[in-house]
Design brief:
Low-confidence stretches: none
Number of strands: 11
Shape: globular
Radius of gyration: 15 Å
Helix content: 10-25%
Oligomer: single chain
Strand content: 35-45%
Amino acid sequence: MGIDHLSEFKIEEQNKAYEGATFEVGNQSFRSRRAKKTPKKLGYFVAFWEKDENRKNQPYDYESAPDKLIITIFDQDKIGQFVFPKSILADKNSLTNKKKRGKMALRLYPDWIKGLNKTAAETQRWQHSYFIDLTNTWDLDFLDKLYFG
């Protein structure tokens, strides 16, 4: 794996409810969150935003965003992670850029969720490429690709 050493670890106070943090490993920067299961809708929810100079919540900006967003899910006996490169977050309009305002949250659908409506199933399909189920086994090559590829 491409693990060097962890540095620049910082808790993100504004996203403490989602265990928000930023850190670097080698020459890659990461933002990390823990998703929450939603009681009335299938899937999980995670917030990621920052305060602007007026202390108002705003989506993260593409230019200042870390290289990857890691979202971890713990759900009873299931564990998984999404590792999204900032390029895919930009493509999915989750980060603010010169043309469009980003989002301040995401709904996530790990592979173990079944019976989704059409829109949620489409979201799950694109998210699948960035998800690893860590419940029983760890595919180290795929983990390395997600984190450092």
